[in-house]
Amino acid sequence: MVSGAELRETHVGIVMLIGDRAYKMKKPVRTGFLDFSTLELRREVLRRELELNRRLSPDVYLGISDVSAPRPDGAPADVAEHLLVMRRMPADRRLATLLTTGADLSGPLRELARLMARFHAGAARGPAVNAEGSQDALRERWRDNIAETRAIPGAPLDDTAIDVIERLSMRFIDGRGPLFAHRIADDRIVDGHGDLIADDVFFLDDGPRVLDCLEFDDRLRYVDALDDVAFLAMDLERLGAPDRAAEFLVAYTAFSGDPAPSALRHHYTAYRAFVRTKVACLRHGQGDSAAAQTALEYAEVARRHLERGAVRLALVGGLPGTGKTTIAGGLADRFGAVVLSSDRIRKELAGINPTARAGAAYREGLYSAEHTEALYRELLDRAGELLSRGESVILDASWTSALHRQEAEKLAKHTHSELIQLECRTSTETAVQRLRTRPVGSSDATAEIAAAMAAADEWSDAMIVDTSGPVEESLRHAAPAWQALSWPPRRHPRPHCPSRTNLW
């Protein structure tokens, strides 16, 4: 439903709503990332806006009109300004508005996800576009946005908050070279929308309309397709609809067939939140006092997703029967990590079915020093490949050797991943009972082998997880170690728990 005349203003433009039309003009401004300072530059950017937005909403973007100023001498009028003429969208069908009304948006968001997947499938690609999806290009964009935000006079965001965001973002990027190279090889970098927010999406009876793509700098529109849609997911979350954000991303990845790790979704969501942080800081600098709170909210979204998307390498160890495999699986289910099991990989390397029995005395047969060294090398090699591609990894093994743990720490540093160390412990009686009654699986450990392993190197850097009680209780105690981020890693307190040597 079209209403009366309105005037709206942003930090770079003015929109006049009159009848069933919207007229958009650019302000004669120049910033660190755009230049609208001359009439010619403003016409060119409006022409590009018309062309680019017709890709998604051709029936909304109608053309360009010139505003002329009459001359007293009767000569032909001079063009005073250029306007982009658009079909006016009904305000009550705006996504940002619908979120406040309690409307059921599951269907419309699914249609929007389908539209964006189709748009990205047909979007322009090529060497120039791919270059902006590289590890170095993403690092440069982050650094530029961070530097520009720091330089805004009176910005509401303090240096400490920016420092945390910078450290987390660089840590992810620095360790993920193969991930970004794979995204380029998989043709995931596109000429996208570049500025997808809830204020610019309208759900009409005949389908969604997406407006106002980024037009002033092509490089900022050349992005990973997942980065493009993460912008809207971020905005939905900031507007109090995190479940809708998750629904939208799940639907988009299904329609687009995108196998990206969850860490990359979190990272791009954080990046988009920080872009809006910068914009809100600029608006605050132009006199919009309410933008200060907006900037803080966006910055909090950025920090939260950077923490969730941090890539982690978790060592979950302990003697046989202490429940380390159960804890490893529970953490993987809770946090979306990949589990690599030493018991299964040991037999894979030997060409044996994982469930076949291959028992031997302590440090003999498949459990000899030679086989064990090969096992840990393989575990860490596989983990390194996964970490570099953005997957968090849990390594389920005994981890009784300090040398093996040192190699894992080196891998975490090399891949800029968080290292988490958990040692499972329980009583002798519980461990023996578990070993005697557990179903046939890939482990061949016995109580006698566990007793021989008990004299292994002390694991002083690990957080001890007492697994004597219910599994959920053990996981509840282990979860904070996964969620905590620290540089350098902290030493965990040693709770009252059976010592390893007193177990046997």
From TrEMBL:
SUPFAM superfamilies: P-loop containing nucleoside triphosphate hydrolases, Protein kinase-like (PK-like). It comes from Pseudonocardia asaccharolytica DSM 44247 = NBRC 16224. InterPro entries: Cell-binding_unc_protein, Kinase-like_dom_sf, P-loop_NTPase. This is AAA family ATPase. Gene3D superfamilies: P-loop containing nucleotide triphosphate hydrolases (3.40.50.300). Pfam families: AAA_33 (PF13671). It comes from the Bacteria.
